Structure formats: C-alpha cells, structure tokens
User: Fold this.
Amino acid sequence: MAKQEQWGSRVGLILAMAGNAVGLGNFLRFPVQAVNNGGGAFIIPYLICFLLMGIPLLWMEWGMGRFGGKMGNHSTPFIFDTLGRKKLWKYFGVFGIFTNIAVASYYCYIESWTLSYVFHSISDTFTGVSQADTSYFFLRYIDVSKSTTGIPFEGVIFFVICLVLNTYILSKGLSGVEKVAKIGVPMLIGFGALLAIRGLTLGTSAASPEYPEANAWEGINFLWTPQFDSLANPKVWLAAAGQIFFTLSLGMGTIQCYASYVRSNDDIALNATTSGFANEFVEVVLGSLIVIPIAAGYLGIDWVLDNAGFGMAFQTMPFLFQQWGLVLAKIAGVLWFGLLFFAGITSSLAMGTPWIGFVKDEFKLPHKVAAWSFGLIILLFGLPTVLGYVSGYDENGKISFLAQPIFDEYDYWAGTVSLVVFALAEAILFAWVFGINKGWKEINRGADMRIPGIFKYILKYITPLLLLFVFVGSLITPPSITVVKADINDPSKQEFLQNQMQQAGFVDIQVKGKSVQGEMYKNDFKALFPGIKDFRAWIETPQTGLIKENYRLNDYQDWALEFNNLIRGNGWNLDNESLIKRVMNGAQHQRIQWHKDAMAQLGESREDLKTREKHKDQIQLIEQQIMLANIGRTLLVILFSGIAFLVYMAYLKRKKEGRA
Amino acid sequence: MNTSALITMATTHGVVILLLIYFSRKVLKTPPKVDKEAGKSEED
Assistant:
C-alpha cells in the first residue's frame, strides 16, 4: 500500500492547527463579545468553558481524526462511520464538510476585504479622510455597484483573487498548507504584538478636543474589571461557550481532517493542548489589547460601547491609524490588515481540506482536481454572499442602509447552529457509542503528556451536557432584559430617579439601601435609547447627581420566569435571536408590523404622506431582506443535500468494493 | 487603569503565556518518535 500524505514536521502540524483556530474572530469577535457581556465578567466563564469544553473537545476531535486516518478516512462522514456502528452516523458527518464549504463561502469574502484594505493602506486611500468618510468607504465597498477606486465590482475582483490564492495553496497539498502556517502564524503574532504594545501604552495621549475623555486604559478597564454578579447570568455563559467554539474551530470537521494525517502512534494530547493555548494567547493576550484600547484611546469608551462590532476593524481602525502620521499609518494599516489576512487564510485553507480529503478518498480524484473543485464550489456559493445585499439610499444618493442577508444566513446556520449540532453529535458518538474507555485509550496513545484522569469523566458527562445547554439555550432563548442599577446616597435624588424610571416605562423598580434598580426588555430599551450617549444624557443629570462610575447596565435572560410561565400555561416568550424565531424571521416581521402600526397612526397631511412613503420604503427593504435570507437558506439546503447524496454514493461504492 | 482590572488582566495573561511556554518547551524538547513506515513510497 502506498504511503499516505503526512505532515512534514511536528511544529508545522501545531502551527497549522493553531492557524486553523486563530482567525478573524480572535481579534474582532472576542473583544466585542467581552464588551457585550459585562467586560471582566466574561473572562471567568470563558476560561472555565475553555477547560471543561474546549480542551476536552480538542483532544476528542484530534483522537477521532487520527483513528479515522488510520483506516484511510480523511473527512468526517467516514471517520464517524468507523466510530459508530449504525449507518446513520456518517450523515451526521456530512456537517463536517457542509460547515466548511458554507463558512468558507463568506469567510473568503471577509478575507478579501483584508486583502483589499492592505492595498488601500499602501495606496494612501485613507490619508486625510474623516472618520465618517472612512466608515462610509466600507459601505461603498460592500455595495459592489459603487466603485471605491474606479475599479468596477472591486469587491468581486478581490474575492476572486483571494479564492484563487486559497485554491492554489490547497492544490500544493499539506506541504503548501504547512508552509503558509509556518510563515503566517509567526507573522500575525509579530504584527499583533506590535499593535498590542501600542494599545497598552496609548493611555490618554490620543485625547482630542472632540473626544477629551478618550483613554485607552478605560477600554482595558472595561474589558478586565471583574463583575462577579454576571456569573449567575446564563446569557454570559452561553456567549462564553459560543466563543470557545468559534475560536478553537470546534465542531467544524477541520481538526479531524488535519489530525487524520497524523501517524497512528504520534502524540495528539500535547499537540492539541499546545495549539489550543497558542490560540488562547492570540485571542486573550493580543486580541484584548488592540481594537478596544486603541479605539477607546482615540474616541472614548462611550463611543466603543455604542459602536462595538465587527465593522470596527474596517470602519474605524484605518481612521485611527491616520492619527499616527503618514508613514506610521501606512505601516500600521499593513500590519493590522496583514495580520487579519494571515489569520483568515490559515483558517480558510483548513476549511478546504475536508472536501479534498473526501473526494480523494471516495472518488479517487487527483489532488489538484480536488482542490480546484473546492475553489469552484466556493465561487458558486460565495458569489451570492457578495452580491446578495440590500442597500437603501438617502435623498443625496448616499447609502443610508446596508444589509447582507445571505452572508448573515450562512454565518448563522453554518457558522453557529451547525457547529453546536455537530459537536453534540460527535461528543455522544465518541463518549457513548464508540465508548469512553476506547476513546480515552485512543487519546492517550503515544501521548507526550499525562492527561489528568478527571477529564475522562468530563468528556463523558460534562462536555455533552454543556453542549446540550448551549444548543437548548440557542433554541429557546428567552427575551433579553436590560437592568439599570444606580448607587445614590441622597434619598431625594433616589426618589427622583425612581420617578424618572417609572415615566420611561421601566418595571420592577426596587430601592434597596443606596441602590435603585429597574429593568425593561432590551428591545424596548434600545428603542428608548438608540445609543449609550442618549442613555448617559438621560441618567447623568444634576437631579440624579450620577456620574458613570455610580451606575451599571446589564443584560440577562430570565429563564426561571419563562419556566414559571410555562408551568402556569402562559407559554414561553422567545427572543428574536432564538433559533425558533430566526426560522420564522421573527425580528423582520416585528419590524414590518412596527412600520404598519406607525402608518396606521398617520393622517392625510402632506407631512404624513411623506412619512407614509418612508415607512413603505422601509417595509420594502425588510421584505427584500427576507427574500434574500430565504434564498440563502435554500442554497444551504441544496449544499447539505448534495453532500449527503455524495456520501450515499460513496457508501454504495464502498459496499460494491466490499469495504462498507 | 484600575487595580482589579490590572490584577485580572495580568493574572490571565500570565497564566496563558506561562502555560503556552510550558507546553511549547515540552513539544520542542520531546524527541521525535521513530517512523515505522519510513522507507515506503512518498506519495499516492
């Protein structure tokens, strides 16, 4: 039998695995999740989930992969088939190819933004441009009908360049992936370290007349000040567990695929642990010291809280770099977007390998053909994410609204739900069907470190339960409630705030000692205070005497209340972000209803007719979003069914050859 | 920077960096295992 393709070196394997895990999310998703989930409170659940779920799942996925590879299987459908005795398991394995193709379809697009922004940083596109115009540049880039540099359909061109680059590297086999990881991972760590030093040392030096209170350390304070009461909030735990999934690339099928090329007696325990900690270093150490501190250093923590999101990387950072002077701005732009590009490409290359492994194993396609077929599939499924956007324009023809429903659907179903379903299935398969004793032996075979025995029980009981908790949590998420808690010593000021809260529509208002507390549904709160500045203006008045150190905002979901409602026969309220509401386009229908209700209040005056037209335009935009979201879902169903069909064909082929 | 934020950040960063160094050193110091399949043909 010919020797199978294998990794060239141990360091290369660990760097490739770390590169697979380190992605754009380490720099963009982690800090935003931390900001949105109580800052310092987030890190404790996050680290606990890393230990109880992340590391055990890493060992498990590496173990499954190496076991499958021994039998000549390099993708999850037939790796699962070797572990489970029932024929059904291989169809759960379909997720391990489906997720990668669907995620790569939009991930390559994001990666192409970073490539384009490296080009724009070098060519001085952002020099002398205001913050508003830098932010608007991004919208023009997404709206491919608007050219940013005179290149028509620039977004499409960069997407294709990025895809060709990925496919070319993949066509070179594991050695190509390993080479990119050996160059890309150290470079991104180096670039990240330089920017992190800047974030850590910026302090108050970047405050401006426009943002006099800007202070980078405020950003660090917000990220790292512990708020232990948030530990009782299931929402924070769900967010922490979700982040661990994303960051370690768990539940995707890429780890199994990479590990299937590890020799059967080589270590996996130490390799998996090292690659996991390399990812945590990039995320927790570097990821927390770049975007949030630098943005807070120039624009203030209020601005960060108001605008925290994925777009900050592209809409804000280029403007902030401009404040460092012409040469440094160019260097910083190349470092920042370069590091995002390396983080992206080392992950997207991993996404290509399960498909390549599958068609090579089952249909004997030559490696190059398998790689280019992956590129073609990503082009077919990726172009809808590039072109499937909805934009609204103001009277001057400027983009006033932009949404990417197909992109969002791919991200939600493939990049979120599918990961949890797959991980839950594989945890059950490994610990309960294959058997934890056999599984434990497999993980420890050839191990260069001793794994504490307690992890055997964690793998069998705690990890599946945590995964079940994450899955059920996302399925029936109760509505988010925002709590405002203020500390006031003066009783008259306490009374004033209490009345102010009542008038604004807060409920469950309580005064305990010097604390005044009230709450309302998050959607209502956001409607009342569209930005954090509006809320600060409302609460920081001479009558309340409050300053920002004396009050806090928290979000939570009241699971106990919903259970009580259910027992009493009052049903279960769902958040618009819950899986069930998402299937029904709940948020969009709620917004359409809101516009219809607003139109019903209008009269026949000229002003009212004008307002009515605006509402109609909004409804039209939302309906376009629903239509595109449904197209995105249909494409995902076609993709999943197509792969499942190929798996069935492969099974028939194996049966015919006497291998099934 | 406030003290509790500084302590939380320094502790978390410290633990992550030390563990990464510990595991990486272990990887680099462990001699490679003998490849029993060495000598067979290189590619499919």
Notes: Chain A touches chain B through 36 residues (CB under 8 Å).
